């Protein structure tokens, strides 16, 4: 078969098994009994081989192999990540194998474990007594209601002797003033009544004189007739609305200006 | 008393909600929980008790005055440690810029100026506060930590004293995860070397 150039060679049989034999040679296979037999036998052998059972290795086969494979990674000493993993007992088997056989890495790993234990055992320190009070003295608690504001004020004022002293001083001065005023008023009722009558009569007179003078001055201005003609009820209402909106916008802007600078907060936020 | 018990068992997030509502007890509970960790971190960073106390105080004041801006999706501990670490690092940078010569300020022109601006090395150990500080920070490992770069120091403290994960530290310090790992590995390497040297 091999000597005959017309019979199929081993490469051509491989091509036939893969279904890639050219049509010109396939026609020879159909007519040649010898080649036909050789091809059938080859196909049968390949079929038998493919049906052979597959045995599976034991568990952790790959780890056992890799522990004895002399790859580049195994030869490298333990890295920082390896030491992290070793300290928490999560070092891969391959690196564990290196550690077992490397005296330098064993020393390093033991030093690492001792260091981590010492770091984790470092004590926490206490600030001086009254730390929370000193902080709270400078913290602005949000005030949601009048009751909160009162509690806050009371807490601040009565927290230290100086606050109590100032509050008592203010109370004495205010209370004393009110009491003295009441006592003087009850002893001098005639004087107060006389002063009230005089104030009412003269006050009214001065008020109307002032209004009259202001009106006269306004009436003499060259622009007054134009403005008076322009001020219709609709325009007055419009101007009032605009003023109210401007006032509200001003309040919002002021509130934003007085709030804590956001940049300080943003810098600290994670 | 009942409120106190509730606060003790409440989570940080729950306490923050109460603080935002203006409950003073909630503020105090947050201070109680974090005054020691924050003070310890700052003290190990700046290595001066009085200064650490001032910076810790500023940390809490800043955090608690901005409590309404706190985003609950982050851990409160990360937030407060971030503010504390920023305060300590800012101070160390400022101090580096304002460092005085041990022989007096370079701008000092007279003998009096030189004496007034020179660092008084011997003075510190004479105060009770300095003695306490020397006891606290005087152990071999504390001295070794003190010799680390500030960036390494804060990373190693947050990792091994506060027990934060690498990812948390990276987020807290605004650093890539790889950089944080490198800092911590290098810090441990330096500490190992220093402690071996001290043993020898």
Q: Notable features of this structure?
A:
heterodimer; A: 270 residues; B: 200 residues; mainly alpha; globular
What would your notes on this structure say?
The complex is a heterodimer of chains A (270) and B (200). Chain A is mainly alpha-helical and 270 residues long. Chain A has 15 helices and no strands. In chain A, helix 4 (61-68) runs parallel beside helix 7. The model of chain A is unreliable at 262-270 (pLDDT under 50). Chain B has 200 residues and is mostly helical. Helix content of chain B is 73%, strand content 0%. Chain B has helices at 2-9, 12-20, 24-46, 49-65, 76-97, 111-117, 128-137, 140-146, 150-161, 166-173, 177-199. In chain B, helix 9 crosses helix 11 (177-199). Chain B is globular, with a radius of gyration of 20 Å. At the A-B interface, helix 6, helix 8, helix 9 and helix 15 of A face helix 3, helix 4, helix 5, helix 9 and helix 11 of B.
Brief overview:
Chain A is an all-alpha fold and 270 residues long.
How are the SSEs placed, and which strands pair?
The complex is a heterodimer of chains A (270) and B (200).
Chain A: H1 10-17, H2 23-31, H3 33-50, H4 61-68, H5 72-75, H6 80-87, H7 93-101, H8 103-120, H9 131-137, H10 146-157, H11 161-187, H12 189-219, H13 224-230, H14 233-258, H15 262-268
Chain B: H1 2-9, H2 12-20, H3 24-46, H4 49-65, H5 76-97, H6 111-117, H7 128-137, H8 140-146, H9 150-161, H10 166-173, H11 177-199
